[in-house]
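CORE FACILITY INTAKE
Project code: CF-77B
Contact: R.S. (postdoc)
Sample description: multi-component assembly, two entities in total
Requested service: structural model of the whole complex
Turnaround: standard
Below are the sequence entries exactly as provided by the requester. Do not edit them.
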Amino acid sequence: MLMNHASSTLLLTALLLATSCSSGEVPSDAFSTFGGFDDMGGDGDPDDALFAEPRIRLLLERQYVNAVGDLLGPAAAMAASPRADVTLNGFDAIGAAQLSLTDADIDAYERSAVAVAAAAVADPTKLSPYLSCTPLSPSDPDCMRSFVDAFGLMAWRRPLDAAELDRWSAVGVSAAADFGTFTRGVESVIAGMLQSPNFIYQVELGAASDDGAGQRKLSGYELATRMSFFLLDTTPSATLLEAAAAGELDDADGVRGWAEELLLDPRARLAFNSYFEELLHLRKLAEIAKDPGTYPSWSPELADSMKAETIALIDEIVWTENGDFRDILDAEYTFVDEALADHYELASPGPSGFQKVPVPPGEKRGGIFGHAGLLSVLAHVSSSSPTVRGKFIQERMLCFSIPPPPPGTVTDLPSTEDAKTMRERLALHQEDPLCASCHTIMDPPGLGLENYDGVGKYRTLDNGAPIDALSALDGAPFEGALELGQALREREQFSWCSVLNLYRHATGHVEASGEVERLREVDEAFIDAEYRLEAAIVELVSSRAFRYVGEQN
Amino acid sequence: MNNPKQYKPRKAPIIRSQGLSRRTMLRGVVGGATVALALPLLEIMLDQHGEALAGGGPLPRRMITWFFGNGCALNVTGDVNSGLRFWPSAEGPGYDVTPQLAPLANAGVIDYCSVLSKFEVKAAAENRRGHHDGCTLFSGYPFIEVDGANYSSKSGGPTIDQVAANEIGGQTYLPSVQLQISKRILTTEGPTLQYLSHKGPDQPLPQIADPQAAWNKLFASFTPDDDPTTPHRLAALDAVGEDTRALKQRVGSADRIRLDAHLDSVAQIRNQIAASAPECMQPVQPSETNTDIDGQEPLISVNEVMSDLLALAFACDLTRVASVQFTGSVASTVFSDLGQNMGHHDMTHEAAQNEAIDASTIYTMERLAYLLSALRDTPEGNGNLLDNSCVLVSSDCSSGLTHSTFDQPIIVAGGGGGALKYPGVHYRSPKRENTSDILLACLQSVCPGASEVGGTLGHSSSPLSAILA
């Protein structure tokens, strides 16, 4: 099982013992823990019953901005400034499904919505899609209600109920009357409705279904929302919402058809590029430091180019070629601009941006693990880090969780006086049984990349001593990025982990046991489709694991 | 029903003009420019002795938690049983000043500092993972593992600053403020390591790393009293509250707790928008933005500006609770000013780097000394802000090499409004007392009625009497 039972027990205990300045009182800002995948099912189908409970999920930062842009235009999107994402279990989407908002977050959403509304009403054409009437007076209540109805459907991705219509119409009418213009009323409505939990969260409640114990089926609107934010990083279009209302998302085939349709939208490429920037930690390239003495060529501009290289390769394989996704691991070509060509000591491609070129020869490169970006982000400030690189490969590429170091572990490394190369310095990890249980899993995949330094430049010496980069991935020998990629692509765990990563991002939770069985079917379809990622995405979206949620706790 | 907290009517920190003729000007330096700041509290509200408010209430008391990551240097290089160099050898008041504590002595604030050795972070024993467990010092709750994929953890309960903010935060414009100096923090293992302040497991509090943003938050975010849009912003927030309450009826139990937090914060922001601006003079906006210069962090200047802003915010009574994450847990901060070129976390895991680790601790104490001096140099009543503050300083382990949660470096600075011992002492725990005892003593300095802190193994109902006056 996924949930740590000890921690849920602990939580209860913590609640009971919680204190504040007034003794004995339980503070109200109390304590929830994550999803809680235990205590589910019990009766009924032992597999399907164990779906994760539905959670309200915050729009990610980029999704919020894109949604504002789709609703109200680019100027409004420019004015948007939502709360920053927080990562949990390796995914922003999981943090968005578990964490509560704080004062600072609510403040950010309030200010953002006010600024967005002001930008939106500055351009009347942005309001016209929601205005089907001409106000008879500045505070015409019927016309205001019709605006709330139309804007609400799009902003909240579902029709409003009567109470909601009343509530928000009143906000608009009051402001319109106060300022004497209908537009000021509309501005207040927009500013308010974009702060509502119905906008900032994906609300996924589902409804009891008659065809699966312990499961709830997402409504058409909920599923349209889940699909659109996953596939396009933005709010569902009017067309998709209409399809949802017409029942076109009620079964797997309908969903499959719409998933294929949405993937034709150019924004799908952008959405999955953002996903890979997150998955591969490429976003961090903008934040990390490198020691200027050790790596004088490092600059923020070079880091940008590095990120672009990896995204360009993935984009080419997944979207341009619609090829075998595993090629990202061992492609013997890449994309460089002038800065990167200089970094790799390749001939300059000229100033016109990125060009497709063969990987640098004689450096055992191929695929993303030969890319300077990944090699830089998986390294220390002034050295490489086989452990960090190996841990990433095991955790992120193969979904193997590395246990923590045992308590009391002394983490010393021998000095560079005693042991020259990183491999020699890490030898103790392999010898001491306390360390070896995990480091024999973590270090070797990284040790095979030791010919690439902390910024991904090729080298044959480490501290003046020759590098031995012959290593192994879980027993399979390899040396260098190309052979690592070739070994990885043959591992069944790689495609499986690719499916799991997509699912965690798409749904904001780590798969529960009933979902695992369904995701196995997705993986099989992925393999049958010769590892075309698009096929995996379509299968994932039409899978029961995507269309259904568990019971509420 | 799930949320018994009642919001107190908020007292806007406004001081009317009758005292202006005799107000004292407080000198503050922000971003290199000297500014004058009215200090209304003293002149108008103090009694004749300057020791209490004219109405009979005590002067405000403040709490700061101040964090630096990855522990300190060992006494003997490579000898994990040799203890920390950090500690004086003598106990009691007038303890000897080690090189690590010298910055505090040089700044003239060491009398305000009690140093507390040989304590055990009892909360750390329940779940073990290096750094995560040591961070539990600040809450007294064992951390919560969020296992399953890409290991993360959450704080097991509210950190001590948020326990205090929950009690006294309603008396000021902002219940608390969270500041961050180094930007090189770890964001991949969850909130425990990423954030210093937590209201609860699912509410890590975002930190402000840009001094201009801190200035905006503290001194420029007031809504003018005559802003015609204010009633409509409030009406929108009220409608948002209605939406939230309606949604709460339809979601599962965990989400109901999240939406309660949402409602609490909507109420808080509503109060902030409705609050009148204080008549404290606005300091000039700092020019510092915490932007790297040639790939290096401007740690010294950011720390100075943030410290100055915090002292001014306290003087204006905009908030009484703050947390400052100087460097993060498992952070890769590089102390470029010391000529270092390794990330701090990596460095602390190599015995051979003991001297460099030590230098980074001394550097860190220099930055802390700046904050304490800024508080000490801001008069309040017959004393100063430091007299009326409790500053809890610690890390996430004893030393990076051992990851031990026994004998983490701990300083409690400030007079605590008379609640804390002055001059401070070196107290060496004879029996590995619980660090939560220290939390409780700190908490009592701002919330005299507090009787317990923390949970399970970290729970304490016995304040450390050695530091109480």
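Facility notes:
- Confidence is low (pLDDT under 50) at residues 1-46 of chain A.
- Residues 275-489 of chain A form one domain.
Invoice: internal transfer
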